[in-house]
Amino acid sequence: MDAFKNECPNCGHAMVVNDLACPDCGVHVTGTVALPRLAHLVPEDREFIELFVLASGSLKEVGQVLGISYPSVRQRLDRVIARLSALRGAKEQERLAVLERLERNEITAQEAVQLLKEPADLPTSSQKEDIP
């Protein structure tokens, strides 16, 4: 089972990756890297997406594997779509907020560029649970 959690166990905010390493040659790359949107979904949704892809997008086959009806599978797919859309919207809203701050001369162009390069503070799993 997929047990990966992307939120901080201390404060609940989204975690980022700061170090990547090659286990074969030992090369390390350091720097803040945002996790992909799919990593911000709850494990149940990530597992559903994996099953959906492995079933070549067949909702009928997904339903058979999970032992649930076609309408239930469709409902789960719609929920995952809504969550991914909300994550996309959160990132776009954050970028727009930076540009608005720049327009109001609250930050410099250089600061705006830096903020736009930083990973988006995507909603945590608990925030995503509010999405139907």
Features:
disordered C terminus, Arc Repressor Mutant, subunit A, 5 helices, mainly alpha, 132 residues, two-stranded antiparallel ribbon
Low-confidence parts:
123-132
Q: How many E strands?
A: 2
For the biggest β-sheet, the strand order reads: 1-2
For the CA atoms, what is the radius of gyration? Answer: 18 Å
CATH superfamily of the domain at 37-120: Winged helix-like DNA-binding domain superfamily/Winged helix DNA-binding domain
Helix content: 40-55%
Shape: extended
Total number of helical segments? 5
Task: Spell the H/E element sequence.
Answer: EEHHHHH
* Residue share in β-strands: 5-15%
The CATH architecture term of the domain at 37-120 is Orthogonal Bundle
Biggest sheet layout: 2 strands, antiparallel
The name CATH uses for the topology of the domain at 37-120 is Arc Repressor Mutant, subunit A
Distance separating the two termini: 23 Å
What does this structure look like?
With 132 residues, the protein is mostly helical. The protein has a domain at 37-120: Orthogonal Bundle (Arc Repressor Mutant, subunit A), CATH 1.10.10.10. The chain is 51% helix and 8% strand. It has five helices and two strands, in the order E-E-H-H-H-H-H. It has a two-stranded antiparallel ribbon with strand order 1-2. Strand 1 (17-21) and strand 2 (28-33) form a beta hairpin. Helix 2 crosses helix 3 (70-103) and helix 3 runs antiparallel to helix 4. The longest helix is centred in the middle third of the chain and has 34 residues, at 70-103. It starts with 16 loop residues before the first strand and ends with a helix. The relative contact order is 0.16. Residues 123-132 have low confidence and may be disordered.
